[in-house]
Amino acid sequence: MTVIGILSRTLFESSRHTRFVFHYSRFALLNIWGVWDTEWYMNIARSGYSGHIHTNPGNIGQADVAFFPLYPFLSRLLGYLTRSDYVAGLILSNLCLIGAAVILYNLVRLDDDEAVGLRAILCLFVFPMAFVFSGFYTESLFLFLILSSLYCARRERWMWAGAIGVLAALTRSTGVLLVVPLLWEYLAARQFQWRRTRPEILYTLLPVLGVCLFGAECYHLTGDFLAFSHVQAGWGRHWANPLQVLWESLFSGDINNLFAGWLTLMVLILLLNFSDRLRFSYWIFGILAIAAPLCTGEMMSMPRFLLPVFPIYILLAKLPGGNLRDEILPIALALLQGCLMIFWTNAFFITI
To answer: Is 250 inside a domain boundary?
Structure first.
């Protein structure tokens, strides 16, 4: 992916899309991993939050409070050692990607054999848009925290599961969705008998605290506790029927919406058709993690938002098919990812 990124950016250097290409390093090896929202996270890492609502063309109504704080904070912290917040963020992303692969394997091994665990890791790495995990973005940190929280829940370490859930919610707002699978795992461990519940059940609700903490910071900056949600209008996001949003994207004349819509539909079909092969807590998290961004009325960034939906990697690993599953599918996904990497490094909207 790195070779594809460097070569494609060099070849497209004179194209009309170069006005969207951002530069954070003088080394092409590093520079290809920062596009689009990287600029927002970099500004937060360098200067903290301002809460200022932009009025300049291209950013009208947008503000930095739309982006949750844990990733830029950790990049800044690690940046004291690397002397570059950008390099620190890339190190953080790739370490979290490795960590996520390890946790995913161990999570799968609680229910399935080693072969399925290894295939799940393979599917994680070849999934379309998976190169984003190595970029200056929150996806790898978010996935690592989600998997870690659920792994702790499966081991009945409820305090750790809840505490990590707080960190996930401080990374992305959808981290609050962890409340549902955590609560389900707790009740399942008690055979759904309320008389067997203990005060430790409250740990499963801790992800809500993450959103509340950032909401308090938003209130301090802007006087609006839900500023992180309200400024989404600057990106054209608003509450909408998720099914209608998905349906309209499937027949849109816009290539970006078409790709996002059909990729999302295929993931949903896989989740719905093979739900019996997944633990229910994983399945319900996957459905909620897809539905939440669809409720914003926009397909923009939807292919990227699918990356933390880890149940899809488990399902792909458990599909029947022999050589079709073990050889043809990974190669096809890897080829698609290579094509998308070209669009990513040259800042085409299809990979925003």
So the answer is: no
